[in-house]
Amino acid sequence: MRAWMLGVVMLAGCGPSLSGFWFGELTCEVAPFDVKLELERDGGKTFVGSGTQTNVRSGVDENGTEVLYELSIAFDGTFVLDKAGGEQPVEVSLACVSESTVRTFTNGEDPETVDEGCTEGRYDGYTGAWDGADELTLTGADDCQGSLFRR
User: In whole angstroms, how large is the CA radius of gyration of the chain?
Assistant: First the structure.
């Protein structure tokens, strides 16, 4: 009986969790971004981690050469749950760590990396919602929205 009670107490202490690897897509204005995020518990209902947001598109540069552009943004995040379990809002705080674009030329020239610096206000005003299981929905003031799924 004691061992069973100890197991129940230990499970109850774990509470809901956002810990793990999350993958999905955010659409910002009309551009789709692949997002990867890893979170770990930082105590109580707070989870911290880091991730990347990438967008690949093709275009033509000023010389008429076809170019593949890959925008990559690295970020840190803090996510705070609202309650002990179930579907709920999530307090989201994200901060850009780096932002760069890699230009790959189709004519065989060496790729070129341009350090963009972090766009001011990139992650201002983000809100989140968690389904209590494996879906995390994000909405940003920068007209970004989408869902991440835990794997």
Answer: 19
Predicted TM-score of the model (pTM): 0.83
For residue 21, which amino acid is it? F
pLDDT of residue 15: 67
Angle 26-15-96 from CA coordinates, rounded to 5°: 30
Provide the domain count of the chain.
1
Average pLDDT by stretches of 10, the chain with 151 residues:
38 71 94 97 96 94 90 96 93 95 89 88 91 96 92 92
Distance in angstroms (rounded) separating the CA atoms of residues 59 and 32: 16
DSSP assignment of 89-147: EEEEEEEEEEEEEEEEETTSPPPEEEE--PPTTTTTT-EEEE-SSSEEEEE-TTSEEEE
